[in-house]
Structures are given as structure tokens and as C-alpha cells.
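Case study.
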Amino acid sequence: MTRTNIALLVLIACVAALPLFGDAYAMRLGTMACMYAIFALSWNIVGGFAGYPSFATAAFFGLGAYTTGILMNKGVPLSVSLLGALVLCLVLAAALGAVLLRLRGHYFAIASLSLVEVFRELVNNATDLTGGGMGLNIPLVSGSSVLSDATFFFYAMWGLLLLTALVVIAVSASKLGFGLNCIRQNETASNMVGLNSTLHKAVAFGLSACFVGAAGGLYAAWVHYIDPSDVFDILYSVKPIVMALMGGLGSPLGVVCGAFVYLGLEEVVWRNYIQIHSGVLGVLIILLLLFLPHGLISLHASKIWRGLFGRKAKHV
Amino acid sequence: MSELRHEILHLSNVSRHFSGLKALSDVSLSVNKGEVVGLIGPNGAGKTTLVNTICGVTPASSGVVTFDGRDITRIKTYQSARLGLSRTFQIVQPFAEYSALDNVAAAALFSQPGESLKSAREAARAHLAFVGLDAQADQSAATLTLAMRKRLELAKALAMKPKLLFLDEVNAGLNSAEVERATKLIHQLAADGITIVMIEHLMKVVLNVCTRIAVLHNGRLIADGAPRDIIRDPAVVDAYLGQQYAQRNAARG
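After joint prediction, the assembly is written out as follows.
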């Protein structure tokens, strides 16, 4: 395992200590941090490794949320519902990926964006199943106290983050990850050396959707109420891209750092500039991208990394 | 060399058009095991299209391509690679961020299902040594010179354990010392028994290494035969070689 991947696992392990210090607010923030990190890591599989800029995060987040919500309303326990959401997103995304990932660049970006709209309209119109625009209430899970509820969902989200990170690390070290990197660098040459790029991209899209879907499910159970405009919010698609760019495209450690920094910025700006928060956040992001185009990880990579190992950190 | 006369590639009446443009019309050609076939013709004659059609990049509009007794007309590119058809590109296509070693490892890894990354990298070292790039193994492909990148293409193609190797202008853009070096490599490959089809503009190289020459002009195969017959063929002189070449050739005897 590479050093950056070990650093990533250490970072995630540190996050687990949060309940020792935090109140319910800190737990809420921690849960969001884990969720954002799941988004960023997942997006990185298809956007960072394979180089296909996907805007489909919100689509699978919403799909996972509704799948879990509907199953739980039918009396299925949370764990099984989450598993259902994960599997559904994996299979559906892989199937859609085999078709959508034939498009490249901007065309793929727009097509993936349209998935969000399509799923939202489907949910909006399947009123019997989803409650349509009225939203969906989701039964309480633990419900003993505010703090124990918060702790439960924090650890659930944290566990999902750990699982995501382990899968991403395994992918990056595997033949699949090697192939995805080939596809990003030169898809023509990839096909020519015998790489089945359609299969690779479909699997990558499936993997990038399934953990987002499970996170959506956890989110739904956590907030007890979802509606289409909440969970199919296009911002869920945009944020992971910003996080990845801020942290360092392609690097799992980088994108998780990006997710945490992004959440920190979002909170600080929200508290201090409640009237103009999105404007201030936007300016900050642009400044960061202008002055740190290769992300936070490049600070690390260029100065410390080269000194230690005598070569540049790679996208592995 | 080809006592067995075992046919490895056969094209019958292969055509390919891009909407109105007929890039290939009714090309029939066969290649025997162990042959080194030179594919020549003026720019735009359809040489690269022919290779693309065989490899499944731009499948034939009509006609049949068989490889090793198998119909591969409608095959996907990655499948043709796994069958043992490999090629170098006229415009080099490296994985720019990867090291030279990983470039070649990728070729070994994906062309042979079941290959592991570790053994692919080991195999890659041997192929890099063969083309004389062992010193550059850890350098990223983007930093290599053109001549080195051409040799990297060759190493990648070899790592795929080809039964049939297409070389698309491996010498274009190289100086004479580099051409000599590349020619030597091709000779070695032919000696190892790899069947080669090479697109080449340098007649010196073609005559030096090829056992047979096929000539394309405007998407049609206008000649196919032994090198010494081809360079005297009036149709070929007209379409490609030019009168000057023919006269010089005649003067040399």
C-alpha cells in the first residue's frame, strides 16, 4: 500500500474519535464530513481515475435515499434497506454507464447531469410509491435521545466512508484501477492493447454510484423526511467535483482532504455571511483553484514528497 | 520460411466508406505466416484505414476479414488485440503520465487475460531492453524523444505477444541513424518469426526488409508481389514511385 493511502486510512481513523469530544452539533458536522468524503471518493473513481467528469452524484444519492425510504416504510430494517440501495445503484449505474460513457467530455457531463433530472421526475410522478412532491416520511430508527441518534448515524456514515475508502484503495492498486488510468490518458491506445474500456467504465460508474446511493439511504433515515428537490439537489453533483479539484484530482487522500476543507469553508462562511454565503464561498473556491490548481495534495506532493522519495507522487 | 504456406490473414473484397468517401474498395489480400509485407502507396491511399479496418477500429462496410481461420470482420478493437493482432501508431499513442515501463506493462496486462500487474511489469522490462529503452524505464512517456516514443510503441506492440504485427510508419520523423536502428529491430522480429505488415514510405527500408509488397492507390490494391517486380510495375511507378525513381533504379540495374 502506498503512503498516501495509509495516510488516508489514518485520517479516517482520526475522524472516528470525534464523539469523544463533540456535542450533537459536532456529530452532525462529522456525519456531513463523512458523507461529503464518500461523495468525493466515489466521484474520484470515474472523474479522477477514468477522467470522465460525472454530474450524476445527485441522481444516485436521491435514488439511494428513496430506495431506502420506501423499503423502510414497508417494514424492512435499515441495514437491509441500505444494502438494497447499494446494490440497486451499483447495477443500475453499471448498466447506464455502459451506454452513457460512450460519450466523452462535455457530452458525457451533460448526459450525466440529465440523469438527475430524469430520476427526479420519475420520483415526482410515481406518487403512489414515493409521495411525489409531498415528500416521504421515514420511520425513526433508534430514537432514544438526540445525542445517541446523532452518534448512531455518525458511526454508520463513518463506517460507510471506511468501506468506500477501502474499496477505492483496492481499486487503485488493482488491474481495474490501472486500466482506468490508462483510459484517462489515452482511450484509443487502451482499446488497442486489449483493454475492454466499456466494461472498465461501466464497473467504475457502478462503483462510483453504489456508495453514494447507500449514503443517500443513511441520509434519508437520518433526517426522517425527504422530498425530490432535497435529495436530487444538483449541488450534490457539483460539490464532489469542487472537493476533488480543491483536494487534488485523482488522489484518494487529496479528495478526502478536499471534502473536509470544503465542509469547513461551507460552515464558516455560512455562519459569518449568512446573507451572501454562496457568493463568498464561490469567491473562495475560485481563489483556491487559481492559486492551487493541482489541489491541496500538491502542496504535500511537490515539497515534502519529492524530498522524501525523490520522485513525484503519482495518481495511484 | 513459409514452406508451410500457412495463411494467417485473409481479406476478401473488403470495402470501407465514410459516408460518400470510398476509402477502401474491394481489397483482397492474404498474408502468410512469417512474411514481412510492405504496404505502400501515396498519402490518402487508405493504408492506415486498411489497418484500422483489420483491427476493428473502423470495421469494414462490406467484405470479410479472417485471421487465423476466424472471421474477425465485426470484432471489437480490444478483442482483436487479445487474438494476437497488434500495431504501432503512425502518430504515437503513449499513456503520457505513465512511465515507459508501465506503458509496456499495460500492453502485457490487458492483452493477456489473467496476467497480473507484477508479472506484466517483469515482462515489460525485457521488451524495453529489446528496443533499447531500459535506461528510460522509469521516465514518464511524455518526456521521451520522438524516436524513443516510436520504440516504446514497438515495445508495447511486442508485449502483446503478437501473431501479426502492423507497423504504421515506425520510421517517419526519424533521422538516418535512428532509421537504421529501427530497421535492425524489424529484421530481428522477422527473424524471430513474427509476421509483419508494415506501412512505410522509405523505399530503402521496404526493399531491405520486406519479402512482399502490396500497393494501395485510391483505396484499391493495384499491385501485390515480390519487391523486384513491384518496383518495375508501370502502374506502381505511375501512382507512387515516380519516373525518376524508376530510371534511377534501372540505371542501377
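Observations recorded in class. DSSP finds ten helices and ten strands in chain B. Chain B touches chain A through 28 residues (CB under 8 Å). We will return to this complex in the next lecture.
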